[in-house]
Amino acid sequence: MRELFENSRDLIAEINTSFIRPLATQIDWSWRLNGIIGARGTGKTTLLLQHLSTTHGIGEEAVYISLDDIYFSSNRLIDFIKAFRLKGGKYLYIDEVHKYPEWAREIKNVHDLYKDIQITFTGSSIIDILKQDVDLSRRAVIYELPGLSFREFLLLSGIKEIEAIPISDLVKNHQEISMELTKDFRPLKYFEDYLTYGYYPFFLEGTKSFKRKLKQVINLVIQTDLNFIEGYDPKNARKVNQLLYILASNVPFKPNISKLSDKIGIHRNTLIQYLHYLEKASVIHLVNPEGISISTLQKPEKVYLRNTNLAYALAPDKTNIGSLRETFFISQVQPIGTLNIPMNGDFSFEDRYIFEIGGQNKGRKQINELKNAHIVSDEIERGIDNRIPLWLFGLLY
Fold it and tell me: Which residue intervals define the domain AAA in the entry (predicted)?
């Protein structure tokens, strides 16, 4: 147990707090039970350690632990918390909860028994709080940490500091916003770098090794994280890898489920379930038509990779500029609201706006008669009328 505290102190002492994700200010840290979920590699552990460092420092009242530590292979979490409390502990930051089979039940018991203990936990985005064998939904407030936006990438890289822009302001005032920002800033100079390696904070460890590390992250998702989904058969990991390569080579993918299930060698219902699993693991986006309720047995209208970095890592010889544009748009907009596929246009956002994505010469033909419809154009710095630069959508969070 002493080693866990020493490890916590070492990590807190070493953590860099010069850049902190905006989610840190949105979390109500005074709430007694918070959960942070998100894809591997997006910075959940860093967020915990930064808050520990800036709020508690190195002391006895707060500690960081990870439930994939070998200590918890033969020791119960609840026993550790009892001992921690007896030593004056109050604030517990728990990483990788999904690696510990009884995590939900034991955290629920601690929450109900000890009113003086505050817990913040992190876990893979595959975690479904509502489907645990105990009810945490009334106790825990859950936050999701997406990957870096283009805005955060610019800030973290030391290129430019820009405030996040609400989508309503962006749509209404994009001409003035883009004109002001580009007085001394060339966004397209950095845009391709972001598409290639800017979504995951670990690009700071070196861009040359970035693709290799990202492939390792995806392998861990398929080989490890998906095993925590009820009903998932780990023997099909190779087939999930095959599915993911097909998707990466053909995005945006409009799935023919029968042909795809024959090609991979799994039942069509199993294939649809695996698509939903990969979405829960934040590897892909499933986009459905307007007015269609989402079901785990429903075939999606289109399948996109979660972000453009995955395209360059998984199928670099298959990247397509049109697909990259749409994937970028989804990755930047989906964290702030719901996107669907309308009758006309590429995407609708919260039934408020319709967007058609394309290059600088993209025409209005498909959305000409529609209200609140806008062209989103790559390869332009500044907008005009209802033509909005694509890069601006990277400033939403």
Answer: 33-154
